[in-house]
Amino acid sequence: MFFIFGWGKQGKKNYGSAAIVNCSGCFETGEWSLIEVYHYADIFFIPIAKYDNRYFLVCNNCGRKSFEIFDDQVKVAKETAKAFHSFHKGKITEYELKQIIKQNKDLKSIEAPDESWECPKCSSSNLNTTYTCKNCGYKVI
């Protein structure tokens, strides 16, 4: 029997707007999207297992600034992304959306850091204004 399998392929999922943050790249306060970046293994080109999941908030206005979020912030960001989606579909009012955002204080208080990120492949330090490692070319998003 012959199997075709692979691993290490990168995928990403955009959950949509998940926070309102002040961007230090474009100096605008606006919606930021939650992006999940992951690697996966496949058999016959069908993904079977995701691993190395990382979550980022990315500025919807300029797209240049992003930063990684973890654990509780990811959970809150997913809930907020659902609320933004419902608002854009007309299922909830702007008032209801603002109430949800106000309840989710973990994301409301986030300010985009000016610090760098570490490449998971070669461990070199990179500025937060880029998605590609300057040393090895690894793409985070």
How is this fold's topology laid out?
Elements: E1 5-22, E2 29-43, E3 46-59, E4 66-69, H1 71-88, H2 94-103, H3 105-108, E5 116-118, E6 125-127
Antiparallel strand pairs: 1-2, 2-3, 3-4, 5-6
Can you offer a commentary on this structure?
- The chain contains three helices and six strands; from the N terminus they run ββββαααββ.
- The chain has helices at residues 71-88, 94-103, 105-108, and strands at residues 5-22, 29-43, 46-59, 66-69, 116-118, 125-127.
- With 141 residues, the chain is α+β, with helices and mostly antiparallel strands.
- The chain has a four-stranded antiparallel beta sheet.
- 19% of the residues are buried.
- The radius of gyration is 17 Å and the shape is globular.
Index terms:
141 residues, alpha+beta, two-stranded antiparallel ribbon, 3 helices, 6 strands, 40% strand, globular
- Give the assembly state of these chains: single chain
The total count of helices amounts to 3
Structural class: alpha+beta
Terminal CA distance: 36 Å
The mean pLDDT is: 80
Largest sheet: 4 strands, antiparallel
Q: Portion of residues in helices?
A: 10-25%
**Coarse morphology:** globular
